[in-house]
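Q: Predict the bound structure with NAP.
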Amino acid sequence: MSRTFSLMLAGLVLCTSQAMADTLKIGVIGAGKVGGTLGTLWVKAGHSVMFSSRHPEALADLVKEAGPNARAGSVTEAAAWGDVIVLSVPYGAMPALSEQLKGKLDGKVIFSTSNPFGGRDADVGRKALDMGVALADQQYLLIYVPINAFDIAVSLTN
Ligand SMILES: NC(=O)c1ccc[n+]([C@@H]2O[C@H](COP(=O)([O-])OP(=O)(O)OC[C@H]3O[C@@H](n4cnc5c(N)ncnc54)[C@H](OP(=O)(O)O)[C@@H]3O)[C@@H](O)[C@H]2O)c1
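A: Predicted complex:
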């Protein structure tokens, strides 16, 4: 199954939830190609989204384009604000994020698009590939069993 299809499916899961529940507050950590696109779709579907970055001032155009229910903040602000947290960063950032977010994600639903590549993500990526991404995610996010976009797609096809 292609990655693009997997991400579309994962996006659909959160978009569909609007029909079943109140709107969600979604904190997006890593507002790049994937996080920026998914967050914009979720705003347009009626959810409230805080896009975050290490440089939140650079997110003004994205926030404007997404719509009135979008805002920008720091990584820790998005983690504190969202009920659902979407991680969409290069996997090599996971050790630093793990430290930064320690104790800040209690009670939240974690949804991750982040996947490792041995080249781009160097040792962190290679270790995660050896260990298995689900286990590596749990190690970095401590008590959490994050929902990985690809796991959703795989479980729906089994
Ligand atoms: N692109 C795809 O088609 C695709 C498909 C499936 C999965 N993925 C996976 O999804 C993840 C995101 O991919 P992408 O293409 O959206 O990447 P991207 O466009 O490079 O965006 C990644 C974002 O992560 C943020 N970031 C980097 N290091 C960080 C750190 N230490 N702390 C906080 N934020 C950090 C960057 O934001 P700032 O620099 O502004 O802080 C950047 O906007 C990756 O793991 C990728 O492998 C991508």
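A: Residues 153-158 have pLDDT under 50 and may be disordered.
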